[in-house]
UniProtKB/TrEMBL annotation:
Family: Belongs to the APC3/CDC27 family.
UniProt keyword terms in alphabetical order: Nucleus, Repeat, TPR repeat
UniProt keyword Hydrolase, yes or no: no
PANTHER family in alphabetical order: CELL DIVISION CYCLE 16,23,27, CELL DIVISION CYCLE PROTEIN 27 HOMOLOG
GO biological process terms, semicolon-separated: anaphase-promoting complex-dependent catabolic process; cell division; metaphase/anaphase transition of mitotic cell cycle; protein ubiquitination
InterPro entries in alphabetical order: TPR-like_helical_dom_sf, TPR_rpt
UniProt biased composition (Polar residues): 15-25, 157-169
SMART domains for the chain: TPR
Residue numbers spanned by region Disordered: 1-31, 139-188
Compartment list: Nucleus
TPR repeats: 303-336, 337-370, 371-404, 473-506
Protein name: Uncharacterized protein
Length: 527
């Protein structure tokens, strides 16, 4: 009540001049609150006609500053404090609902902020803004109503722009909803799409590795080729590609893949033991020596490093030193299967078949699917002329690696030694189809045909084989034997001489010279 009295004293003082406004000869205008619709009339506050004439003269004259604006704002704020903050502020900070003020729909939050003076609490700020801002205009009813309408329009526009309530048009709400949904779906879809891409990459890599373990090497290469360029040219993938080419006896492509793997990951030892074997078969002694030194300097405690060093010595025919290096690899990692197999190869080269068998068996105890150990055991039994054992172990190796042309060829050789020539020819034909670039099965096929007395067919096979292996001395030596059987001694001598010109091994040289000495000897006496 004290606040109301203070406000009424400031806005509508008595006719007696106060001490603060003693220099003003005119009385202030009537209270603006009484000019609102449905409010009390002006005559109830200022009844006499002289006061109305005074008000008229004040309206027509330029309005003077009656009260300090800062104090007026402070008083008005205290007077209408129970109505809460500005409606536009409330609407922006709270929820949304609708209210009806004098027939105009505005947005609100559904909270009841009514007071004893609903018209004043909702329109008071608009009325006072029209009083304090529009100094040069008359305080007529029309001016006041314009200020009220403009304030309501401002409030409605602010409410419409700051909220997304039911006052927005349906099309606008639907567009904003669709855009928000699309943004949310995009934010969700980015991690999901990234996860799907990672899973697709892992699926391709896993499928390629699975096929490689099943020794379906060509299928594995086709799967690895589906990888993107930046994922294909990584050390691990390129090493797997090199292993696949190695199993396909494509040593040139294997060497290229392993070399690229070294460039991509120079300190990775994955597949370097196989890479050293590839260089061994290609007779690349300089590259093999450099690789061994690099691996030793990278990690002296890795079995791959000592396997590469052992292959380097084995190429130099120093089998004892090579065996020591392979044994060193076994000491560093007793479960490194390939080191046991390489030890078996060196024992065989030293004609120590007993220790060779033991090394291969140690490898099979670690990994029963290591077909190289089965193949090594079969080769020992083949040298020992234990053909049944040899055939059994070749079949076990072929069961694991069903696409190896070399295993098929030696299995045909074992069957041929057992006088099962028809079965041997069938296996040899499969070996030729499996790898047309491999000259070994065609040579074994010619041998089987010679033993069966089909010399013309054998010569046709050898003539075709010369195109694949023109520098193979054994091909010309076998052709010389066939011409000798057919009593064509000149052709036989020609091919024996060509075989010697190709500089075969010492064992082959001795066998070719023995055939030349028996050139004119009948076959019955030779047997």
């Amino acid at each position: 009540m004290d606040l109301l009295k203070e406000a009424e004293t400031a806005l509508c003082p008595s006719n007696e001049p106060s001490s603060e406004f003693s220099g003003v000869s005119h009385s202030p205008p009537a209270i603006l609150r009484n000019m609102l619709p449905n409010g009390p009339t002006s005559s109830s506050v200022c009844a006499d006609a002289s006061q109305r004439s005074t008000v008229k003269s004040i309206i027509q004259a330029p309005r003077r500053k009656l009260v300090d604006e800062g104090k007026l704002k402070m008083i008005s704020g205290r007077l209408f404090s129970d109505s809460g903050p500005r409606r536009s502020t409330r609407v922006a900070g709270e929820g949304v609902s609708t209210a009806n003020i004098n027939g105009i729909t505005v947005a609100g939050n559904g909270t009841n902020h009514s007071s004893k003076y609903p018209s004043i609490s909702k329109l008071g700020s608009a009325a006072f803004r029209s009083v304090t801002v529009r100094k040069g205009q008359s305080l007529s009813t029309e001016t006041f109503s314009e200020g009220v309408r403009s304030e309501l329009d401002d409030t409605r526009s602010n409410t419409a722009t700051t909220t997304s309530g039911s006052s927005l048009p349906p099309d606008t709400r639907s567009c904003e909803h669709d855009s928000s949904v699309s943004r949310a779906s995009m934010s969700v879809s980015k991690p999901a799409s990234g996860g799907l891409q990672v899973l697709s990459l892992l699926k391709i890599i896993g499928e390629g590795y699975r096929l490689s373990c099943l020794y379906r090497c060509q299928d594995a290469l086709d799967v690895f080729m589906q990888l993107p360029h930046k994922h294909y040219n990584t050390g691990w993938v390129l090493s797997q590609v090199g292993k696949a080419h190695f199993e396909l006896v494509d040593y040139l492509e294997a060497e290229r893949a392993f070399n690229n793997a070294r460039l991509a990951s120079p300190y990775s030892l994955e597949g370097m033991d196989i890479y050293s074997t590839v260089l061994y078969h290609l007779k690349e002694d300089m590259k093999l020596s450099y690789l061994a030194q690099e691996l030793i300097s990278t990690d002296r405690l890795a079995p791959q490093s000592w396997c590469a060093t052992g292959n380097c010595y084995s190429m130099q025919k120093d089998h004892e030193t090579a065996l020591k290096n392979f044994q060193r690899a076994v000491q560093l990692n007793s479960r490194f299967v390939y080191a046991h197999t390489l030890c078996g190869h060196e024992y065989v080269a030293l004609d120590d078949f007993e220790n060779g068998i033991r090394s291969y068996q140690n490898a099979l105890q670690i990994d029963v699917r290591h077909y190289n150990a089965w193949h090594g055991l079969a080769m020992i039994y083949l040298h020992q002329e234990k053909y049944e054992f040899s055939k059994h172990h070749f079949q076990r190796a072929l069961y694991i690696n069903a696409h190896s042309s070399i295993i098929m060829t030696y299995l045909g050789t074992s069957l041929h030694a057992l006088k099962r020539n028809e079965e041997a020819l069938a296996v040899i034909e499969k070996a030729i189809i499996a790898d047309k670039k491999n000259p070994l099965p065609m040579y074994q096929k010619a041998n089987i045909l010679v033993s069966m007395g089909e010399f013309d067919s054998a010569l046709n096979v050898l003539e075709e084989l010369k195109e694949y292996a023109p520098h193979e001395s054994s091909v010309y030596a076998l052709m010389g034997k066939i011409y000798k059987r057919r009593d064509m001694y000149d052709m036989a001598m020609l091919h024996f001489g060509l075989a010697l010109d190709l500089k075969p091994s010492a064992t082959d040289v001795a066998a070719i010279k023995a055939d030349i000495e028996k050139l004119h000897m009948p076959d019955e006496l030779e047997d």
